[in-house]
Each structure stands twice: as C-alpha cells, then as structure tokens.
Automatic annotation (TrEMBL):
PROSITE patterns, per the entry: HTH_ICLR, ICLR_ED
GO biological process: negative regulation of DNA-templated transcription
Name of the protein this chain belongs to: IclR family transcriptional regulator
Keywords: DNA-binding, Transcription, Transcription regulation
Domain HTH iclR-type: 4-67
Pfam families for the chain: HTH_IclR, IclR_C
The species this protein was found in: Actinoplanes italicus
Gene Ontology MF term list: DNA binding; DNA-binding transcription factor activity
Domain IclR-ED: 68-253
Ranges in coiled-coil conformation: none
Stored InterPro entries: GAF-like_dom_sf (IPR029016), HTH_MetabolicPath_Reg (IPR050707), Tscrpt_reg_IclR_C (IPR014757), Tscrpt_reg_IclR_N (IPR005471), WH-like_DNA-bd_sf (IPR036388), WH_DNA-bd_sf (IPR036390)
Length: 257
C-alpha cells in the first residue's frame, strides 16, 4: 500500500479500533471490518502502535486507541467538540424519560456516538455505546440527520447506498422502505427506529444543527419496544425535539461568543 491508499486503510483501521469502545478489538476483527488480509492488518496496527495511535493489551490480545490520539483529540476538541455542551441535556433526557440518552455526530456518511447517559429503567437497549458507528439511515440518530440533509443529497444517498445497507442491516433498508422512513422523519420532525438494528430495541432521534444550519449532530433515546411503541413514541419525540432545539441554540450562541 502506498500514498492515499495507505492513508485510507490506516483511517479505516483506526475507526474500527475506536468503535470497539472499552472492550477493544482483535486483529481478526480489524481485518474483517477493513477487508485487509490479517497479516497486513497486523502490520498496520503495529506501525500505528509504534507511533502511539493504538495500544495493545498483550494479555487479552486486544487493540485500543492510543495516547497520541488522546493528545491530538484534546487539541481538536477546542474547535470541534460540543459534547460538554450537550452533557446536561443528555442527563436531563435520561432522568425525565428513564431511557438511555445519546449524543452522536455526523462524520461523512456515518454517525459516531460521542456520549451517553443511562436511564433509570432496568431494561435497556445495548445497541449504542460511545465510539460505535453506523451508516446514515440505520440508527435513529443517523436517520434524523439523513432526513434533514438537502433533499437531493438525501435521495442520492438512499439510491446509492440502500443495497449495501439492506445487505448489512436487512430488507427494511432497501430503497422504498428507507425513502419512506426519511419522508416520515421529515414530516414529524423526529426519527423512529422500530427495532431494525436489533429486534425489540427501539430508538428515537432528533437532529441538532450547526451554526450554518447544517445537520451535524443528533440526540437519541433508546430502549425496549414495550417502552417506546404507541403514544409514548410521540411523547419521547417531542421531548427530543425540544432538547435538540435547545442544544442547537447553545451551539449558535457559543459560536458568537
């Protein structure tokens, strides 16, 4: 691998390691996710470890993000991170609903979960956790963001990616079904994922805009189906829209400060 191909593959490796959250990932998992031969994945990981970008637990044989990324991330956070701005809103959503609340950011054609707050209800959905990534249109956060992209961009994404999404996440992500969910999200203002990632695990999401009015983040609530279907879905959606609007206003004011 040379040039831009090498950079692209290293970025894919780092993303997969990052999605492993606190449990880390194995070399085999990195190879499977990136399409690299295991030997190549091992060499890339070793090279990244030499620079401090990943770290390996020798006892368990699992890879984690390394200290150099923490240092770089601390610098980048001054410009890009709004997680601290969202923390109290996440806590409020978790307390008011009893469900788990999450804050996710758009990164290209994906969302990455940046923060979460567990609710008080003892049964929880475990689909989301900090660091996990999903393509736009899959989890409720990504569906909310997709729905509020410019219409031409959203339709183009659905046409170009629906076959891939359907193969990975099921037939409800084919063109017609996904287009219908995008339209429904735009109409009611919030997204609903009725157990399409993991059966019985529901999610509701609302988009958060940046200072330019671009859908850049999303707030979501997740839980078990019995807590989300029926009238309560609309109640949770209304709470999310209120919280997402408040967070958008904070971000706009922060940019003016």
């Amino acid at each position: 691998m040379q040039g831009t191909q090498l950079v692209t593959r290293m970025a894919a490796v780092l993303r997969r390691v990052g999605s492993g959250a606190a449990e880390g990932v194995t070399t085999a998992e990195v190879a499977a996710a990136t399409g690299l031969p295991r030997s190549t994945a091992q060499r890339v990981l070793a090279a990244l470890a030499g620079e401090g970008f990943v770290d390996r637990d020798a006892r368990r044989g699992r890879w984690f993000l390394g200290p150099e990324l923490f240092l770089l991330g601390s610098v980048a956070a001054e410009r890009y991170d709004v997680t601290s701005t969202a923390r109290d809103i996440l806590r409020s959503l978790a307390v008011r609903t009893g469900e788990s609340a999450f804050f996710s950011a758009r990164r290209g054609d994906e969302t990455v979960c940046l923060a979460g707050e567990e609710g008080s209800f003892p049964l929880r959905s475990h689909v989301l956790h900090e660091g996990i990534r999903f393509p736009l249109g899959v989890a409720s956060a990504g569906l909310a963001i997709l729905a509020y992209l410019p219409l031409e961009d959203a339709e183009g994404y659905v046409r170009s990616r629906s076959a891939e999404l359907a193969a990975a996440y099921g037939g409800q992500h084919e063109v017609t079904a996904l287009s219908r969910r995008v339209a429904a999200t735009r109409k009611r203002g919030y997204a609903v994922n009725p157990g399409l990632v993991v059966p019985g695990s529901w999610g509701v999401g609302a988009v958060v805009f940046d200072r330019a009015g671009t859908p850049a983040w999303a707030l979501s609530l997740t839980g078990v189906e019995s807590r989300f279907n029926g009238e309560r879905t609309a109640q949770l959606g209304a709470l999310l829209l209120e919280a997402a609007h408040a967070l958008t206003q904070r971000i706009v004011r922060r940019g003016r400060a």
